Amino acid sequence: MSTAPLTRETFGHEPIDEYEGTPEGDKGATHIVCARCAWWTRWPDVGLYIGVHVPWPCTSAIVLGLVPREEAAQ
Description:
Blueprint: E1 15-17, H1 23-26, E2 32-43, E3 48-55, H2 59-63, H3 69-72
Antiparallel strand pairs: 1-2, 2-3
């Protein structure tokens, strides 16, 4: 199986450390997530709308070939 990306375009699906620049990150914690993908939750009765980033690699990154499928399965 080829590990080369299907396209050079990432469409924003790139790994980022969600804790970088936070107190948790300053203590050495890391949480690698997709810069683009998020799960959204709404509580309209209190006017709250929260997005939580999806862990890396996201499904789109795998489909685009940005991450080898073998690596993603681990």
